[in-house]
Amino acid sequence: MAAKNVVADLTRGDKLTGNNYDIWHRKIQYLLNEQELLETLSSKMTRPEDGNTAQHRRDLEAYQSWFKKDRSTRFTMLSSMHDDLIGEYEIFQNAKDMWDQLKFDFGGTSTTRLRSLVLKFEVYRKDPKHTMTEHLRMMSGMIRDLKAAGNVLTDEQQVQARSAKRRPNLQPLSPIGGQRKPNGFKRKDKGKAARQGGPSTNAPKVNKGANQHKRKRGAKKNISKMKCYNCNKLGHFARDCTEPKKVSLPLDLSSIYVCYPSSIFVCSHVFVAKSISDWIIDTGATRHVARDRAGFVDYRKIPAGTHVVYMGNGSYEEALGVGSYQLHLRTGRTLLLHDVLYVPGVLYNLLSVFTLLQLGYDFHLSLNGLDILLDDVIFGHGSSTWHARLGHIGKDRMTRLAREGLLGPLAKVDLPICEPCLAGKACRKPFGKAVRATQPLELIHSDICGPMNVKARHGASYFLTFIDDYTRYGYVQLIAHRYEALDCFKRFVAEVENQHEKSLKALRTDRGREYLSDQFKDLCEEKGIRRQLTISNTPQQNGVAERRNRTLLDMVRSMMAQANLPISFWGDALLTAAYILNRVPSQSVSSTPYELWKGEKPNLEHLRPWGSAGFVHSTAHKYGKLGPRARKHIFIRYSDSSKGYVMYGEHPNGGMTEIESRDIDFIETDFPSIGDANRDLDLYELEEDEGTLPSSSEGGGLVPRPVIAEDSGSDLQPSGSITLDQDSQARRVSSRGHIPRRHFEIEGNVLLCDAKDVDEPASFSEALHSPDRDEWMTAMQEEMSSMDKNNVWELVDLPPGRKTIGNKWVLKVKRKADGSIDRYKARLVAKGYTQREGIDYEDTFSPVVRFASIRLILSIVAKQDLELFQMDVKTAFLNGELDEEIYMAQPAGFEAKGHERKVCRLKRSIYGLKQSSRQWYLRFHDSITSFGFEMIEEDHCVYLKRSKRSILILSLYVDDILLAGNDMDSIVTTKKWLSSTFEMKDMGEANFVLGVKITRDRSKKLLSLSQGTYIKKILERFHMHNSKPIDTPMEKGCTLSLDQCPKNDEEKNQMSKVPYASAIGSLMYAMLCTRPDICFAVGMVSRYQSNPGPAHWRAVKRILRYLRGTSDHALCYHGGDLRLTGYSDADWASDKDERKSTSGYAFILGGGAVSWCSKKQSCIALSTMESEYVACSAAVQEAVWLRRFLQRLGVTAHAEDAVLLYSDSTSALAYAKDPKYHGKAKHIELRYHYIRDMVSQGEVILQHISTGSMVADPLTKPIARDLFFSHTKSMGLRRI
């Protein structure tokens, strides 16, 4: 027990620092003796040379025994050292050398050690906080140390010392060497120094000089009104005070003695440090003192007792070394201090004024502190300090202040590199001054902004600007898709060239795909328009358009903040803002853009506040003779086809409508609301910082200038020209470099727009205008060729009374395992949602292989080193034959010439039909069984073919096939048959299937499954790819409940913008495939999809942060034992809403998990036993299925063994094994007793395991990090 206490002391509080060597070396010897390791401090051995004799073997055994003990001794000694010492002594290869060096460094010679012990004994005084027993024990220890060093005290001396040292104001028993006065400086407050009782020889002189004007010699003192400087009470002096000495910083450091063997020096600091790492400028110290080793550039150890620092409160510290110290000042400068003492025990680093004065430094003292000067260069409160005080102003302004004497002694400003200025004022290199156009249409700037987080009323998600460089007049067009930019540009060119009778000379844009298409290039070449493209990720080169987009959106936000209209009216606000900006002065031109463009001054008298109310006069008297002559509407924009306003309001016959009118009486202070006005104004957040924008003198500068709108007579305004594709449901989003980051956050900005690497068109017309038009057309041609090859339909006239179903093109980019583009894929999909049950289809069910089946097969592949190949069925659904008569419209873009009115009578199933998947499966099943494969009953998408020398296992997931086997010839034969029966694509050895990367090291029988690319993709999708990683998916003790759901409409509206369900779905796919570690967390957050709250969303983001740090983790099968082992666990009443328990199980095969589950129980368990019993029942069902699956495959000798299922509940195991009646369990439903039947039949063996070893623990609740790592590692999750 005592040894344990010593270990705790040495590893926690009594670590060796050098000054406590005496007590440390006694404790360490006691500990090593208790561990039978003491002999290693006095002996060492070397490894014997190679040999094969009996003596050599004995020598080797002796050496190995010694080495083991020596290693333990070194570990014990190093563990008991301070961190600063470990690096110095861990270099010793054996304990004896380390022990001898420590004795030399800190034990000292007989003379120096004795001197140190005598000093310690002389200055020691009883601490008032210590009891008499503690005081006597410390005295006995010092007397014992003196005796060991050769200085034996008599009994009389010991009694006298114990008595004297009880009073802290007694002087030492005897002086230690001579004393000398400190020189090179003067004490300012000598009286205070005298009262504090410093042991300097000039103390009597100080006392005399300080009091000679108060009273004569021999006069009696009246102490009743005297105040103690220690306790602040009247009636006594500080030297007679019985209260504990103050431990405040000024008192501790106001009397510091740097003691040498023959002298003592008085030190006094001039200001108090702000932190432990600060340096105190000390006007009394004759040597610099440092408390940390990090700053020493030259260091050497010194024997113990050579230099001692003695504090005024009675404590002292020994110096362990001396050297040169590099002091980095806050000003950015560096001082190299020589002969600095290393004293780790002092509280603060001390800078000696005396030493600096001898070196030629000067000091300037002011109310703001102390400045150190050397040749007009200031250290301390110098240029950098003033620079920070003045808010990081520039050098020129500081120089003016210094010249006027406002910066104290600072005469010359010399600023070093300022990192805060670099961080706060950093900007890109200035762009050269652009050459401005000299006439209209000489240069046009253009850009597309969007998509917005909310579509405009007419469906627009973007807006397009065209800006004339000379006049700064421009046009704005609302568009739904980026590809519309080409048509808008055609109309723009035709209109402006007709108005000005000039040709457009040049067009400046960024490198967005919409501007780089072949059609856009051909149009510019045809018109003779010169292209000016920006450098990638350099939007400043298109600064006119970029800045105007920003200015325009700033106005939109401001107008919508004042009005009470829904955010879907942002398009109307945008057009209104653009209309106004064309008619107000610009910093870039001498007049207004309108005047330079039209040749006349604009009229502003008709302008009205956007969103204000107005009564629209009706000349037709629609409301009858007695009805109102005007109705209240809301002003939403200026008309583009007439000199009037567009008003929004209720139609007389119901609903809402737009009205164009000039006869309106406005109420400009009334801003009525309609519907639910969304107050989120973060339409689009631009990334550029105004601090980085070029100045207004630059032609391409991004200064705040008006962003253009159309002329009131322009036909490019959106009210009558927006064209939307009704079939298009998905937004096309660009990934251009200047689009800013967006975040899914409740606290900050809501989702503004999504970003993808490549635009995936949502329709045929969109594909035609896509920058990747050629690739998409090729993919669609391949799909149509496949349709024709498989004779999918025939063209017929639509029979009377029958209806056709529609179709659409689904265009996707297929990627490789590393995320790069593999191919462009087009799929013609029928609109099966229009089919009618009983007429167009009957049965629809179609199985797919379970992921658990795939993982089980792959674990066998790893263990038995089987071959593994992958194949893909091209247009798989086209192989299914239809039993029903279905008619479909011809595909868009591929109508048969001369037969446009005919329809397609489907002969085979195609994608999108409700029965397509089933028909394809039936066709494949019939074909593969006819080839000799047998379907496994446990999974109808796994087929087995066995012969005397070979075994083949085929698994099917829709159109993806995995083929495993031990005979290469059989595999090749099967692949050839598949290719001859279906149109196949041979993918070679399996390495990427269903989004899961398969990696094999066949020499080690290692197979791993990972989804790193998929995880990175979802992190980018939800803008969490730069988030801070975290160790666990859910914090221990975290609970979620319905109480955290939104309570009012505002909170629900806020959460409606968060892609909660989408994030859950993305996480769930990773969890189902390869990540059992997030199973519980995903299951927990998925319970609140119907009404999630901010706390639930934060839990989802924590899972994403966890995946951010573990995206390189893989589920590994390392060829381990093929005995199926299961773990079952439950967390009783963990659901705070329904008080239901959570079940979890995991099954391990071949070193990795093949099946796992975390699920809330359907019943309310009345006890932990019941919850564990219900969990075991679910685990037994999975165990039986897995066991029979293995038996059906017949590839492992352990397939017939019962499954070993572990549980940490002894009561649940006892109840499962004992069928006797239990009163506390009589209510348990009958179906849960299935476990008993399986145990009795020998299908499962139940075994108890400790809670700390329960692998399924992370599947039922959040647990601590270390335990979480241990259990997930047992499941096979490892970093790759």
From TrEMBL:
PANTHER family: RNA-DIRECTED DNA POLYMERASE, TRANSPOSASE, PUTATIVE-RELATED. It comes from Fagus sylvatica (Beechnut). This is Integrase catalytic domain-containing protein. Residues 211-221 have a biased composition (Basic residues). Residues 436-601 form the Integrase catalytic domain. GO terms for biological process: DNA integration; proteolysis. Keywords: Aspartyl protease, Hydrolase, Metal-binding, Protease, Zinc, Zinc-finger. The lineage of its organism: Eukaryota, Viridiplantae, Streptophyta, Embryophyta, Tracheophyta. One of its GO terms (molecular function) is zinc ion binding.
